[in-house]
Amino acid sequence: MGLNAPNFVGIRLSPQYQDISLELKSARLYRFSLPLKQPLDLKHTTLHQRDGLILVLTDAMGHVGLGEISPLPGFSRETMETAIYKTTMLVDRMINFGELTAHHHSRRNTTWENRTAPSVVHYGVETALLSLLANARRISMGAMLYGSSSNKIAINGLLQSSLSDWVPEADFLIGEGYKTLKIKVGRINSVLEARGIKEIREHVGPDIKLRLDSNRSWDLETAIAFGEAVKSANIEYIEEPIENPAELPRFFDACEVPFAFDETLHQIVDPTISFEAYTGLKAFVLKPTLIGCTARFIALVNQAKEQGIMPVISSSYESDVGLAALAQLAGSICGEDIAVGLDTRSVLTAGTTKTPSSIQNGWMPVRTLTTQDLDLSYCELLYHN
Ligand code: OSB
Ligand code: MG
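That is the input. Now the predicted structure with 2-succinylbenzoate docked in place:
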């Protein structure tokens, strides 16, 4: 049965690619469990392996689309079990009944993309559909959505070490060719961390961009004290410095360190909201996996561009399949000018494609995957329709 995919995902394609309909033929769903180099400390939990799902959709002509569904514990609303259940239900209905079940917006006359809860499943299924449509047209997903894409994207090197090793790790990343670094703060004492950031700046010189992220760990006072301490280190921006984002303009007024939204965008954001009141708002760190709705992600990108805010695509420890899709989006949205947050593959010792999503000299190539690229050694087939 025929499906109208843009209708399903509720987004507009670049004009030259708008004549869309597709006939889904089959679906395969794999579960993977990838080993990590070392346990990965996240804000609320520690991961000992990275689990996720790969969805492979095939149409009547034999074109394939790949999507990844990897709930991140402590960040995603869905657990792995819920994700498996929801994905199989959704895909089953798409294949057997040609039903547009994901957001069901066509039946209701509402701004549905601003009301549906973020869902890693919806994003993954939407990506599989969009990548199928793009593969059928022999273009990248980014080009299909936005009309053009760069061939490579700049990456911010992500420091993984603890404070005592920041300088040597920054040194290593600069040696690898990164021009922008991202450092996680708010983990231990903020005074020591501020000192560490200044040491990094002294060491790397003025031309490297420094981004910080405190994942909402501080109250306003602590954040301001930190901001004042690192003011001379010329910070490009700090992601989510304080618990309560409504206080962010006061943070900027006090210390003049620009800030970025990340966690705030994982909630439903009123589409009519103007961010102009947020002086000092420099960037949106956009994690499609956690925003959990392609149309909402695109709306946020548009909002950022209209209001002079930098859109910075970022990953959530996806495997190679998920990273390749994010790189395609970044190729169209950020091009070669804005460094993006896709340096998360290095925590894994294995992947889901034969060649990993590699970074060279601070650049990641934008690539389109087919089923031949998949490495299923760490995968188990859960579902085949
Ligand atoms: O806080 O930005 C974060 C990854 C998973 C969950 C949360 C975060 C991240 C990253 C991704 O930092 C890497 C990056 O943005 O450079
Ligand atoms: Mg962040």
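Residues 101-110 have pLDDT under 50 and may be disordered.
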